[in-house]
Design goal:
By secondary structure, the chain is α/β, with parallel strands linked by helices. It is built from six helices and nine strands, in the order βαββαββαβαβαβαβ. The chain has two domains: about 80 residues, ACT domain (Alpha-Beta Plaits, 2-Layer Sandwich); about 100 residues, Rossmann fold. This is ACT domain-containing protein.
């Protein structure tokens, strides 16, 4: 029987009973929890549930119910559906261009659409313009504020997959937990065989 896989992310201030309430919600909707990953760092709770459904489900009702529960628990909830539709890709960059150039040169072979390129500065804007891809700059030095902007941009462009292409900032748990298994750092894989003394990720 064909299964529909749904990824559910829950992020917020740590409190008791969150895991139980979300898993109970899934069971009530006749879903099966296949994977649970939860973490708490400095009072911040993050959980990823991978849920399967064998019966037909109403995605809007599921989203609405999850967000209602999230509001009750003061948690931010988002869902991700595994479908065969084209994935929206967001590329994060800084100023080194070799990773971005490699991706753009191979984009016809990529099973997805590069929807936006986000930079910490404007250095790579010309490459994005030439490729006719929106380029957004997030120059905010405060990481918390920068990630708030990044999340808004990703939401606006409905990003499914994030690619770090020589992105020289460290993303916090607050950001990473919202995109479980959907962030890839390609820089190390594009290092030359003999990079010399200046090779760093």
């Amino acid at each position: 029987m064909k299964k529909t896989i749904v990824g559910i992310t829950v992020v917020g201030k740590d409190r008791e009973g969150v895991v139980a309430q979300f898993t109970n919600f899934v069971f009530q909707k006749k879903g099966n929890v296949e994977k649970v990953n939860q973490n708490v760092i400095k009072g911040l709770f993050g959980m990823y549930l991978e849920v399967s459904f064998t019966s037909k489900i109403n995605f809007k009702q599921l989203d609405s119910g999850l967000k209602k529960l999230g509001k009750k628990l003061r948690m931010e909830v988002s869902t991700h559906y595994e479908t065969n539709s084209e994935k929206n890709i967001g590329i994060f960059v800084t100023k080194e261009q070799h990773c971005l150039k490699e991706i753009l040169s191979a984009r016809r072979a990529i099973r997805g659409k590069i929807s936006v390129i986000i930079g910490t500065e404007r250095a790579l804007a010309p490459l994005a313009k030439k490729a006719k891809i929106p380029f957004v700059v997030v120059e905010e030095r405060n990481q918390e504020k920068a990630e708030e902007k990044l999340l808004k941009i990703c939401k606006k462009f409905q990003i499914d997959l994030i690619v770090l292409a020589r992105y020289m900032r460290i993303l916090t748990s607050n950001f990473v937990w919202r995109y479980p298994n959907r962030i890839i750092n390609i820089h190390p894989s594009l290092l030359p065989a003999f990079p010399g003394s200046l090779a760093y990720a």
